[in-house]
């Protein structure tokens, strides 16, 4: 079965039918609703329901409860919209309670999902359940010229949901292959706005990482659109991708606590749950590669990570991520034997052969509308590449052609390929080694 065709509703979090289904303490729901009304100045139940990501009937029940407690009051329909929907506002006691709650945590908006419920949802939509076929992987890599055995190596690695280390000379498409792996996953999952543990709310949804997908079941009338077929505290998204490079630090892999707002942001790998975590240019970070890999060893083996609250309390969160490491260094120069054993798949991404390089050059030239020239190609292969020991790289073709296009544009001549243009483009591909006087 190709998981790309799976209907995401098969593992959708079930609809909330009563307040108890949220799994949240009434005090937490009360305070979040009060803070949201106070901060967002929403008045109608429909607007409050959208802001706190609960169904309208459950939101109405909460509002009624807060009215009974003297924290909210009805304004009638005088200030309401043309729908004549009842308006509500905070009483003085409600404002005081909202301010007190905000002094403890500035979090407001969507009601969180309890950690235990989120663990269950993560298991249902686990990236380890995705069966990627050869056709799906070929399709996602279709824009790349790869050696025949590359898909043979990558396929089992990706389908296993285990860690992958890609290594080899720079400029040969390791980053592009990592992106192709992400594209091959294809389907959608459900990401909660936030989760909660021990009374603390942790924001999980990140618009930079998560791409929402329109729910096809919500077509039709406006009334039907208000009735989602799953727990609306979640957002249907493409399987996420977190891609980091030289900026990655160990602190990004832990909870981010903002002391001013007293709120938590999820760690990068928690945001990548159900998807791919790509560590590009491993070895370029300030942290030693061995330290970074040590941070991942236990989560990769046991399937959960341990995070720490400001109080010092530690707790387990799911680690359901396909980790793809990409490096220009040889693995033996980065890790000890124990770390290498724990990275399940090691795939060398080497430079292309002469024949593969010419295929890439022809493909890119056709795309960029630069006609090939036999004399220029012979000049490139017999005069230029011998100077670098015939070391071809995947990035050479697009780089040289972009240089040629820039020169043609500047000179005001049609796009063409000549030995002279090859020489001028080559000057920027390889900088001559020389001593610069200071």
Structure notes:
The protein has 438 residues and is α/β, with parallel strands linked by helices. Helix content is 40%, strand content 15%. The strands form 5 sheets. Strands 3-6-7-11-10 form a 5-stranded mixed sheet. A 5-stranded parallel sheet has the order 9-12-15-4-16. Strands 1-2 form a two-stranded antiparallel ribbon. Helix 16 (396-411) crosses helix 17. The longest helix is centred in the last third of the chain and has 16 residues, at 396-411. It is elongated. Residues 1-6 and 219-225 have low confidence and may be disordered.
Secondary structure: elements and pairs:
Layout lengths: L25 H15 L4 H8 L3 H13 L3 E5 L10 E4 L1 H13 L8 E2 H10 L9 H7 L9 H11 L3 E4 L6 H12 L2 E5 L1 E4 L2 E4 L18 H4 L8 E5 L2 E4 L11 E3 L4 E3 L2 H4 L4 E4 L9 H14 L1 E5 L5 E5 L3 E6 L3 H4 L2 H6 L2 E4 L5 H15 L5 H11 L11 H16 L7 H11 L9
Helix pairs in contact: 1-4, 2-3, 6-8, 14-16, 15-17, 16-17
> What gross morphology would you assign?
elongated
Number of helices: 17
Strand content: 15-25%
The biggest beta sheet, please?
A: 5 strands, mixed
Q: How many runs of DSSP E, i.e. beta strands?
A: 16
Mean pLDDT: 87
What value does the Rg take, in angstroms?
A: 28 Å
Strand order of the largest sheet: 3-6-7-11-10
**Poorly predicted runs of 5 or more residues:** 1-6, 219-225
Helix-strand category: alpha/beta
Measure the end-to-end span.
Answer: 64 Å
Helix content: 25-40%
What tags apply to this protein structure?
alpha/beta; 438 residues; elongated; disordered N terminus
């Amino acid at each position: 079965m190709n998981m790309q065709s799976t209907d995401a509703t098969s593992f959708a979090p079930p609809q909330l039918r009563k307040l108890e289904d949220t799994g949240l303490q009434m005090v937490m729901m009360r305070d979040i609703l009060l803070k949201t009304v106070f901060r967002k100045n929403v008045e109608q139940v429909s607007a409050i329901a959208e802001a706190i990501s609960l169904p309208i009937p459950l939101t109405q029940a909460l509002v009624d409860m807060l009215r009974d407690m003297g924290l909210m009051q009805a304004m009638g329909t005088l200030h309401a919209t043309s729908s004549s929907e009842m308006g509500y506002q905070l009483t003085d006691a409600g404002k005081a309670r909202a301010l007190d709650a905000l002094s403890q945590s500035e979090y407001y908006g969507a009601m969180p999902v309890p950690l235990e419920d989120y663990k269950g949802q993560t298991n249902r939509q686990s990236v380890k359940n995705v069966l990627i076929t050869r056709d799906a992987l070929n399709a996602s890599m279709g824009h790349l010229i790869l050696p025949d055995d590359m898909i043979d190596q990558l396929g089992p690695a990706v389908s296993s949901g285990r860690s992958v280390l890609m290594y080899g000379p720079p400029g040969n498409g390791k980053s592009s292959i990592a992106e192709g792996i992400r594209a091959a996953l294809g389907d959608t999952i459900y990401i909660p706005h936030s989760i909660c543990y021990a009374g603390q709310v942790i924001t999980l949804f990140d618009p930079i990482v998560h791409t929402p997908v329109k729910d096809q079941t919500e077509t039709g009338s406006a009334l039907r659109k208000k009735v989602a077929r799953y727990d609306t505290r979640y957002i249907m998204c493409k399987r996420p991708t977190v891609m980091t490079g030289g900026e990655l630090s160990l602190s990004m892999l832990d909870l981010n606590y903002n002391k001013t707002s007293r709120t938590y942001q999820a760690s990068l790998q928690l945001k990548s749950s159900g998807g791919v975590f790509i560590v590009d240019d491993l070895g370029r970070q300030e942290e030693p590669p061995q330290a970074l890999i040590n941070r991942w060893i236990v989560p990769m083996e046991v399937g959960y990570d341990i995070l720490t609250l400001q109080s010092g309390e530690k707790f387990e969160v799911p680690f359901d991520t396909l980790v793809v490491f990409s490096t220009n260094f040889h693995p033996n120069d980065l890790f000890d034997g124990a770390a290498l054993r724990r990275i399940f798949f090691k795939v060398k991404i080497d430079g292309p052969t002469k024949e593969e390089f010419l295929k890439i050059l022809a493909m890119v030239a056709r795309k960029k509308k630069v006609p090939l020239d036999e004399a220029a190609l012979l000049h490139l292969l017999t005069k230029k590449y011998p100077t670098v020991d015939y070391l071809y790289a995947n990035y050479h073709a697009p780089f040289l052609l972009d240089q040629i296009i820039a020169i043609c544009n500047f000179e005001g001549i049609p796009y063409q390929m000549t030995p002279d243009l090859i020489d001028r483009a080559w000057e920027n591909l390889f900088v001559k080694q020389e001593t610069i006087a200071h």
